[in-house]
Amino acid sequence: EAGVTQFPSHSVIEKGQTVTLRCDPISGHDNLYWYRRVMGKEIKFLLHFVKESKQDESGMPNNRFLAERTGGTYSTLKVQPAELEDSGVYFCASSYGGGGYEQYFGPGTRLTVT
Amino acid sequence: QKEVEQDPGPLSVPEGAIVSLNCTYSNSAFQYFMWYRQYSRKGPELLMYTYSSGNKEDGRFTAQVDKSSKYISLFIRDSQPSDSATYLCAMRYTGNQFYFGTGTSLTVIP
Lengths: 114, 110
Prior knowledge:
The structure holds two protein chains of two kinds. By secondary structure, chain A is mostly beta strands. Helix content of chain A is about 0%, strand content about 50%. In chain B, strands 2, 4, 5, 9, 10 and 11 form a six-stranded mixed sheet that branches. Chain B is mostly beta strands. The interface between A and B is medium-sized, with 28 and 26 residues.
């Protein structure tokens, strides 16, 4: 069974540019989560999809971040325009059911904003 | 105050040693407690989980939760060089978002 995949693995952009991160969850997982880890800090929740609907987006830092999940399959996270403080590792996770303890994480996308 | 506190280490032990990793938390509503292992440039991998208080053992790993003290632990017996990684505690209550500690970097020296 393929795990959670994320693309790209690394992105370097200049301040003010736009970047789109993609996450493909494990097949059959209705729940998809985005997290972010800023250097030196803990991994923090951004938002949660159930199928194509946003269930909880309380962790989204501001309106420069836009997450979508097309048809309840893959998800994209767009940052527009990017700021220096957006640098970090963005993780995607998925789970079959909501709640519980089993969230399977992807390898992350390392975003560097210069 | 952070929801979850975890000593970042780094922690370095000889092969075969018993390792103790710990987290404290402030929110008494947390119900699910997880330990993740993360190798360099990889995503976190679920290692152990515990619901509410108590102990859970899986091979060389034991997870403990003491809700009265708001303290969780992960013990690794007979540590191996392959255990060298960053260990993250995570917890959640009624919602679906996980709250993570900052992670403890562990190196097991052959």
